[in-house]
Write a structure and sequence with these properties.
Blueprint (H helix, E strand, L loop, with lengths): L7 E2 L2 H9 L7 E9 L6 H12 L7 E4 L9 E4 L5 H4 E3 L11 H14 L9 E10 L2 E9 L8 H6 L1
Parallel strand pairs: 5-6
Antiparallel strand pairs: 1-4, 2-7, 3-4, 6-7
Length: about 160
């Protein structure tokens, strides 16, 4: 791994989180927010809201660059462009015909999403829109890698 001069070492807490990650045990958190609305959420409005936060939360522009050997140190690398079409997107409540609906279906979806790793080639977070959880209810699911919420930035992320 080539370390660039603009790379920043992860904090001790973030390094511990990254070292704890294993296949089948991703180290991220998430939450679902139910939204009462008769119409699905406007994805462009959500993307615009997220875009507005990118200047206030620079950690959302960083990727984790992991060492190639066993004794290297992971670093943060800031990326210039954020693909909001990837980070903010719609997901179906279920792809299974007999799957649970409503809040229990949303809970199952959250479980599947939290068990799946976030891509490593992009900043490790996303905002997922779920239509039709129940009549007049839609949801936003937010996932982010635990390293993004280290001691320096955890409260900022949660508040935004």
């Amino acid at each position: 791994m080539e370390i660039r001069h603009e790379d920043t070492p992860l904090s001790a807490a973030a390094r511990a989180v990254v070292r704890s990650e294993r296949p089948g045990r991703p180290m991220h958190v998430g939450g679902a927010h139910l939204v009462a609305s008769e119409v699905p959420l406007d994805i462009e409005q959500v993307r615009a809201a997220v875009a507005g936060r990118l200047t206030m939360l620079p950690q959302l522009r960083r990727i984790i660059v992991r060492p190639s050997g066993s004794n290297g140190v992971a670093v943060w690398r800031t990326v210039d462009e954020i693909d909001l079409e990837h980070h903010v997107r719609r997901v179906p409540l279920s792809v299974e015909p007999d799957a649970a609906v409503g809040v229990s279906g949303l809970s199952e979806l959250c479980g599947r999403l939290l068990a799946a790793p976030l891509p490593e080639d992009r900043p490790p977070w996303d905002v997922l829109l779920v239509d039709g959880v129940a009549p007049g209810q839609h949801a936003l699911i937010v996932r982010s890698h635990l390293a993004l919420g280290d001691a320096d930035h955890g409260l900022d992320l949660a508040a935004s």
